[in-house]
Design brief:
The chain is mainly α. The chain has a domain of about 70 residues. About 50% of the residues lie in helices and about 10% in strands. The protein has ten helices and five strands; from the N terminus they run H-E-H-H-H-H-H-H-E-H-E-H-E-E-H. Helix 9 links the parallel strand 3 and strand 4. The N and C termini lie far apart (about 40 Å).
Length: about 220
């Protein structure tokens, strides 16, 4: 925050709607905790009841997005030694409303990161619309100013047609993902790409040094066509 203030930069925190004030966890949080607290044998046996042949690692890609919360809630109740509410009350991993307002006073802006953290590349339009609609309505109810910024969960963007409708209906000024395409990261386009944090393909330093060159190449190609 010190550097942000020195250079007059307003950082943006992207919020998962259902997690605000430690009300609930998103399904991917539950999967991570189940992997940490449960034996692999017990967990695999229970997962097999819902998605035959799946593992805790492959469940993400094999489960239907419309079923993700139902399945992970049921798994949690079957294998975890404590309830979701007990865990949240004890650890409080997410921002409280008080903390959010304190950050706001310090110059932090808020954007949204969906309601339940689904993979938007696998959603149909009504599902995608609901994810954003619930978030923006909640921020209004909490009286917390929210920018029209949307960061895709996992960095996976929605289909172009769906994204175009979301931008129009919610008046989004920017969407953030990790799938580069012509026109990204330049005005008047709304899609901006964030730097990956896992480092599997490029380190953050390599991305920092290489991306300006890659973007300039993209820009020249885009202008050429």
């Amino acid at each position: 925050m010190y550097l942000c203030k020195e250079y007059n930069i307003k950082p943006t925190v992207f919020l998962i709607g259902k997690c605000i004030d430690n009300k609930e966890m998103a399904w991917n949080h539950k999967l991570l905790l189940m992997k940490r607290y449960c034996s692999p044998v017990k967990l695999s046996a229970q997962i097999d009841n819902y998605v035959p042949g799946a593992t805790i690692s492959s469940l993400f890609s094999r489960i239907e997005m419309s079923e993700k919360d139902t399945v992970t809630d049921s798994l949690w109740k079957e294998v975890m030694p404590f309830s979701e509410s007990d865990y949240l009350q004890k650890h409080k991993p997410f921002l409280s409303l008080t903390q959010m307002k304190s950050l706001q006073k310090a110059g932090v802006e808020f954007g949204i990161h969906s309601w339940s953290h689904p993979d938007f590349s696998r959603l149909i339009y009504p599902e995608a619309y609901t994810e954003l609609d619930l978030c923006f309505k909640q921020m209004e109810e909490l009286s917390v100013p929210c920018k029209r910024y949307f960061a895709y969960p996992y960095g996976r963007p929605a289909q172009n047609e769906i994204e175009t409708r979301l931008i129009k209906n919610f008046q989004l000024s920017a969407t953030f993902g990790i799938s580069y395409g012509l026109g990204d990261n330049s005005l008047p386009y709304t899609r901006w790409q964030r730097i990956k944090m896992d480092g599997r393909k490029l380190t953050n330093q390599q991305q920092f040094l290489l991306m300006p060159w890659l973007r300039s190449i993209k820009a020249s190609r885009f202008n050429f066509f």
